[in-house]
Amino acid sequence: MEQKQLVAQAIVAATDGQLSLEDVVAKIEVPKSYDLGDYAFPAFALAKIYHKAPQQIAPELVEKISLDGFDKVEAVGPYVNFFLDKKAFSLEVLQEVIDQQANYGDQDLGHAGNVPIDMSSPNIAKPMSMGHLRSTVIGNSLAELLKKANYNPIKINHLGDWGTQFGKLIEAYKLWGSEEEVKKDPINTLLKYYVHFHQVDQEQPELDDEARAWFKKLEDGDEEAINLWTWFREESLKFFKGIYAKLGIDFDSYNGESFYNDKMDEIVEILQDKGLLQESRGAEIVDLEKYNLNPALIKKTDGTTLYITRDLAAALYRFRTYNFVQSLYVVGNEQTNHFNQLKAVLKEMGYDWSDEIHHIPFGLITSGGKKLSTRRGNVILLEEVLNDAVELAQKQIAEKNPDLPNKDEVAEEVGVGAVIFHDLKNDRLNNFDFNLEEVVRFEGETGPYVQYSHARAMSILRKAGDVSFDQLVGLNDEESWEVIRQLSNFPAMIKRAVEEYEPSVIAKYAIHLSKSFNKYYAHTKVLTDDEQKNTRLAMVASVATVLKESLRLLGVKAPDEM
RNA sequence: GCGUUUGUAGCUCAGCAGGAUAGAGCAACCGCCUCCUAAGCGGUAGGUCAUCGGUUCAAUUCCGAUCAAGCGCACCA
Q1: Cα–chain-centroid distance for residue A438?
Q2: Nearest nucleotide, C1' to the C-alpha of A537?
Q3: Which segments cross the bilayer (predicted)?
Q4: Which single residue has its CA nearest the C1' atom of nucleotide B15?
Q5: Is the pLDDT confidence value at A96 over 90?
């Protein structure tokens, strides 16, 4: 970053202030190929000012630029290419990483402001599928990233524990369920009832009325309904927590939809007071015509609430409780309309803070090209995927490193890490069709590749024993230069990932850093006794630190050996 | 139909908010372990950046249209 300023200043000085520093900074780019330097300034913008061809201007600029801070400055066609002083720059970067350790890359974008994150949010009485994994791992990574940028994230698991579906479940249980069967295998049994319900109600639509009646009872506090619901909820939560433990993710709150049951009346009252509520086809709605959105359904004909009613209550509750600077919702892109409606209704209610509500959408996972659907039985169980991945990691270890001391622990970290990393490495919005082989791949651009790179670095450091990094020297060979440049990019990557709510920025970065390090590793023997040995070790230590930190920000463990 | 997201190599994706010969990974083929973990490194082959227009000195990148796909469009969440 500062290097870019240095380049910009040199250009501004050489052009006698014809261009502002800001303009020049905006124009400066990083050449695609190393032999074209570290930064480049295209002289096209000057062609009009000087009435000359940019190819002619570039060499003239080079004449006027002092070499202070650069190894070389040269003109190639219309470009002025800058080569940084490798020795000075590498020393500076390594010193910084060694000094700051895991704090390297920390920023203060958030000034400690609260940011509730609505994430994971599985539905009670249903198993967790690959679909929930996305919200969980993206939310978790955003929380870590926000923390690094000095925000105070609050991870809220907005459990899907309320709604008509529980009427259906209770109705199904009453018709076909047995207590013993549920106790044996809660989730799968409840799921079975639920799926069965949807098969039967195709021909017996009156079941839906029964189900709605049960949900009505639930909202009205009927004892039998509440008892069943509480039981289903507890069993589900036990099961979910097992999976979260496996993923290494925890939450600050498990306040799901039901938590807002007693907070919706106020919302309805406010809407009424402000004259926003209208009756339409027997239901209560808020018209959103002027936002070019469908009306928001606040209450159904039978007086029960809907998803958006609860989300309105939740939004207000979160604002009052956390006084947030931003409020995030990590929810699939198929719900974009819902969040547009949510924000619009809040805006109509006069809440300016609705502008700080951000839906963080992500793409859909399909299976065989088809949307996952619990009711139709088309699910990919997260638990199974994780188990498969860990098992595969075990095989891999048995084959490649049979003497590894803590095999099971490492297999867990690698297997689970592979699944998480796979989910985070691509753009959030990309859809993907589930493919087990792809998800648990350990070679190429994968989580295990990054973990392996880290383990290699740690291995060198172990072999090196005690070394001090007090007397570092500059490095200027080609292979280490690639690594140094990557290391220096880390803080900028953090910033971008936070600003774009995009963990994939960090995943991609980790791959690039790993690549440059593996290349270096193949080319240079680190543990050779010479005057640069300690500096090389400092670089290896820096790579290990930054890789481990990158993985941590993604929610992936970095074993020292694998 | 309306809204929205997407369209880059056989497959999966990058391309840093316009720039110098479009990059990786898988898959294919060929090399590299007497040397810090070969879960690695190197090489070969593979593309009219969906199509057509527009803005610009410069467009894969910005704008518009068309085509194709995903998702959403009132009593589910």
Answers
A1: 20
A2: B36
A3: none
A4: A32
A5: yes
Instruction: Give the nucleotide nearest to A304 (CA→C1').
Output: B75
Nearest to A311 by CA among A257, A271, A275, A353: A257
Query: Which residue is nearest to the C1' sugar atom of B11, using CA?
Result: A438
CB A19 within 8 Å of CB A50: no
Instruction: Find the nucleotide nearest A310 (Cα to C1′).
Output: B77
Residue closest to A95 by CA, chosen among A470, A408, A415: A470
3-class secondary structure, A365: strand
Cα A481–Cα A486–Cα A492 angle in degrees, nearest 5: 140
Long-range contacts of A398-404 (CB under 8 A, 24+ apart): A401/A561, A401/A562, A404/A561, A404/A562
Closest-approach nucleotide to residue A392, Cα vs C1': B39
pLDDT of residue A52: 87
* Nearest nucleotide over every DNA/RNA strand to the A211 CA, judged by C1': B76
**Å: A427 CA to B9 C1':** 20
* pLDDT, position A1: 53
Query: Given a cut of 90, is residue A195 above it in pLDDT?
Result: no
Position A204 scores a pLDDT of: 85
Q: Is the pLDDT of residue A109 over 80?
A: yes
- Mean pLDDT for all residues in chain A: 93
Q: Using the structure, give the distance in angstroms from the CA atom of A444 to the C1' atom of B30, rounded to a whole number.
A: 19
Question: Is residue A62 very low, low, confident or very high in pLDDT (cuts 50, 70, 90)?
Answer: very high
Distance A499 CA to B55 C1' (A): 29
CA of A411 to C1' of B31 (A): 32
Instruction: Write down all domains in chain A, each with its CATH number in brackets.
Output: 2-84 (3.30.1360.70), 114-371 (3.40.50.620), 382-554 (1.10.730.10)
Phi-psi category of residue A459: left, alpha or beta, with phi > 0 → left and psi -120 to 50 → alpha: alpha
For the CA of A308 and the C1' of B4, the distance in angstroms is 20
pLDDT over 80 (residue A230):
yes
For residue A17, which of A39, A49, A41, A47 has the smallest C-alpha distance? A49
Name the residue closest to the C1' of B18 by its CA.
A27
- The owner of tokens 């929810």 is A331
Q: Taking residues A471-498, what's their average pLDDT?
A: 93
H helices of A201-291, in order, are 206-220, 223-247, 264-273
The protein footprint on chain B, as nucleotides within 7 A of a CB, is 3-6, 12-27, 35-42, 57-58, 70-77
Residue nearest to nucleotide B72 (CA to C1'): A334
Task: Calculate Rg over the CA atoms of chain A.
Answer: 29
How much is the ipTM here? 0.96
> What's the CA–C1' distance between A101 and B9, in Å?
40
% of chain A residues with pLDDT over 90? 75
As given in the structure block, the two tokens for residue A443 are 């070679």
Question: Gap from A522 CA to B31 C1', in Å?
Answer: 15
In this prediction, residues A276-282 reach a mean pLDDT of: 93
Q: Using DSSP, state whether A400 is helix, strand or coil.
A: helix
Distance, angstroms, CA A520 to C1' B32? 15
Average pLDDT (A353-377) is 86
